[in-house]
Amino acid sequence: MLEVVILGTGNVASHLFKAFSEKENIDVIQVYNHNKESLKSFSNLTNTTTNIQQLKKADFYFIAIKDDVIPEIARQLSKYKGIILHTSGAVGIDMLKHTANYGVFYPLQSFSRNTTIDFTEIPICIEANSAENLEKIKTLALTISKDVREVNSEQRKALHVAAVFVNNFSNHLYAIGAEICNEHAVDFSILKPLISETASKIQTLSPYEAQTGPALRNDHKTIETHLAILSNKHKNLYREITQSIQDLHGKEL
């Protein structure tokens, strides 16, 4: 039985807790957070604590908290012999160097607390300070996911930036699309099949090959029509993305 302590109660921590708790060979023996109120949803499921000096002995300690406090938390875990892991895409492994055994366990996915996610489909990027620890982390990761990859800190940071573009930025563009629809009394749901098809196409085509639209066609008339419809706050973004598409595909405005 592998014993796990989770530090944090946010979206990543909550999904990890659920994924581990569903496995017979993994026991989440404790959840830590400095805020007692945030531990309420875990208090009937496992041991909880607000005192980081009173963590239980475990095989793995997951730091699933804000990136900027990872180094500070890691320093307070230096006395523990289990493997200290952070779950961040943007923080290097060296932020854990004050501990004896450490690594990274980065699930490459967007987590929202009230959504159901099949963890077996989530790529988990792992890294460790030794070959022995890497194997232990890999064994743990394969318990909940069928896609586990060794990725170093620089690669993981690049992946995190790429993920921001394909997830956070694309979702923001959905929000702008919804705003434009609302401004013109059109139901945003009419765009959902298009969104699904766009995501589906890149399963068989590269994003470069899947590109369509007036920017690719160098359709000046349509571009000008769009700019005339858009509010001022969206015009510059439209122009910049149009230019970026044309730069990538060798077109000229």
Structure description:
The chain has 253 residues and is α/β, with parallel strands linked by helices. The protein has helices spanning 11-21, 70-75, 131-144, 153-183, 192-201, 207-210, 214-217, 220-229, 232-248; strands spanning 2-7, 26-32, 47-49, 60-63, 83-86, 102-107, 124-128, 148-150. Strands 3-2-1-4-5-6-7-8 form an 8-stranded mixed beta sheet. β4, α2 (70-75) and β5 (83-86) form a beta-alpha-beta unit.
Task: Give a brief description.
With 253 residues, the chain is an alpha/beta fold.
Strand element count: 8
Task: Count every helix, treating DSSP H or I runs of 4 or more residues as helices.
Answer: 9
Could you give the order of the helices and strands?
EHEEEHEEEHEHHHHHH
Would you identify the regions where 5 or more consecutive residues have pLDDT less than 50? Answer: none
Query: Main beta sheet, described?
Result: 8 strands, mixed
**Structural class designation:** alpha/beta
What is the end-to-end distance?
A: 62 Å
Provide the residue-averaged pLDDT.
95
Q: How are the strands of the biggest sheet laid out side by side?
A: 3-2-1-4-5-6-7-8
